[in-house]
């Protein structure tokens, strides 16, 4: 696979929806430890609805399709995480609007804008135990691989590795945002539910690119 067509984007969102359904109970459990426990439901609803609407949309512009996906998630899952993820897709889609296929450099631009959009919307920065701590190392690893000439399939592995490393690093941070922040030092050593959900979002991209979706 050398690029992502709109059909691939639809398949990726469907893959993410399937992963969120599979991991729903895990996300509910993680979120229930120090949060309100609705993350699994939110992510499943957001991506399932987005996947359904994406399948109906006859949109040849990959960027516009990604923006529509983001708008759908923000609309049907108006929680903190849903709003952030929706904003990410909208920002990322805007960065590649006008393209009918996304090559490695285009996908890198999408991921960088996705991350920047979430940082702006959530007013967060690295080191605060948020989804940014997964997205930044993942998007940077992908961008570096693409810049070095790696094919999309190999760059996708770097994306996965960067996300996993970010999740592990975030566990040792002290939360500065959301309900988890109330626990301060007690949040150290705990998985941030949003970080875990973010690795599953990125897994959807990797699975499809690598042929598992």
Could you characterize what this model shows?
By secondary structure, the protein is mostly helical. The protein has a single domain (6-210), classed as DhaL domain (Serine Threonine Protein Phosphatase 5, Tetratricopeptide repeat). Helices cover 70% and strands 0% of the residues. It has 9 helices and no strands. It has helices at residues 6-22, 24-34, 39-56, 62-76, 80-95, 104-122, 132-147, 152-171, 193-210.
Concise overview:
With 213 residues, the protein is an all-alpha fold.
Largest sheet: none
Distance between the termini: 13 Å
How helical, in percent, are the residues?
over 70%
State the assembly state of the protein chains: single chain
Query: Which of globular, elongated, flat, extended, rod-shaped describes the shape?
Result: globular
Strands, helices and their partners?
Blueprint: H1 6-22, H2 24-34, H3 39-56, H4 62-76, H5 80-95, H6 104-122, H7 132-147, H8 152-171, H9 193-210
Helix pairs in contact: 1-3, 1-9, 2-3, 3-4, 4-5, 5-6, 6-7, 7-8, 8-9
Structural descriptors:
213 residues, mainly alpha, Serine Threonine Protein Phosphatase 5, Tetratricopeptide repeat, 9 helices
